[in-house]
Amino acid sequence: MEKLIITACICGAEVTKEHNPAVPYTIEEIVREAKSAYDAGASIIHLHVRWDDGTPTQDTARFQEAIDAIRAVCPDVIIQPSTGGAVGMTDLERLASTDVVPTPEMATLDCGTLNFGGDDIFVNTDNTIMNFAKIMKEKGIKPELEVFDKGMVDIALKVDRKGLLVHPLHFDFVLGVQMTATLRDLAFMVGSIPPGSTWTACGIGRYNYEIAAGAIIMGGHVRVGFEDSLYLEKGVLAKSNGEMVEKVVRLAKFFGREIATPDEARKILSIGQ
Asked: For residue 123, how many other CB atoms are within 10 A of its CB?
């Protein structure tokens, strides 16, 4: 079985210090969390950025500042900016994260509209998805296809049939938001993507490590971090993203999976080839 790629989603756009005081807002805090995850074994940093007061932003200059600062302490890590941003942002706002220099190796591409709870709706029309895919292909950015249910896999495959994606495809199954987070659901999602595709999985909240274990056993890859869960175990807040990555590393060791370095992750994901 190939080595395990761990992605650390270090802050997201919705969680706050009120949920967990370790959630990073400032550049210094973002760097601290990225370094803790990298040192623990993460080869990809999934990056949202905030203003110092915690307000989410897709401002290109803020992304540039964060990426340059992370690179200074984690020079070989893969930095994956989010094009999801936060609920209510425009397409142009969301794409601003891909305007940094140098062009990102990867970025996320959300493949459908979903309910985020309450009245929050994260809108991704077919035209938005096609446009994001076209721009990423033109820039040479590897999209991580964010899918929250089986219908979004089908939308991603429709985009692929338009010639807007480059194979092998890479999916991230985000379970526990719009689709339940069970090993049955994970297996169904894995069976729905083209042969030769790579995939990462994450379970939101209390499903975090259950889905991580399933992904490790099934030969996929794992995403963990404050964006997806704030706890190391029931009732115990994680002190850092690094603690969460360390837990996944222990799971991987138990199940006999070695951890991929950033350069090994690039080879597995066909980045830069």
From this structure: 13
Indicate the SS3 state at residue 84: coil
3-class DSSP state of 226? coil
pLDDT digits (tens, 9 = 90+) for 1-38: 899 999 999 999 999 999 999 999 999 999 999 999 99
Q: What is the Cα–Cα distance from 42 to 242, expressed in whole angstroms?
A: 8
Q: What is the pLDDT of residues 203-239, one digit of tens each?
A: 999 999 999 999 999 999 999 999 999 999 999 999 9
Which of 161, 132, 162, 135 is CA-nearest to residue 146?
132
Q: What angle do CA 39, 44, 46 make, to 5 degrees?
A: 115
* Nearest alpha carbon to residue 202 among 227, 219, 234, 233: 227
Contact 159, 152 (CB under 8 A): no
Kind of pairing between the strands at 198-203 and 236-237: unpaired
- Are the CB atoms for 6 and 187 separated by under 8 Å? no
Q: Which residues contact 166 (CB under 8 A, 6 or more apart)?
A: 137, 142
CB count within 10 Å of CB 24 equals 24
Residue 54: left (phi > 0), alpha (psi -120 to 50), or beta? Answer: left
Q: Do residues 134 and 102 lie in contact, with contact meaning Cβ atoms separated by under 8 Å?
A: no
pTM over 0.90: yes
In order of their start, the domains of the chain are: 6-268 (3.20.20.70)
Helices (H) and strands (E) in the chain, counts: 9, 14
* DSSP code, position 111: -
CB-based contacts of 60, cutoff 8 Å, min separation 6: 96, 97, 99, 100
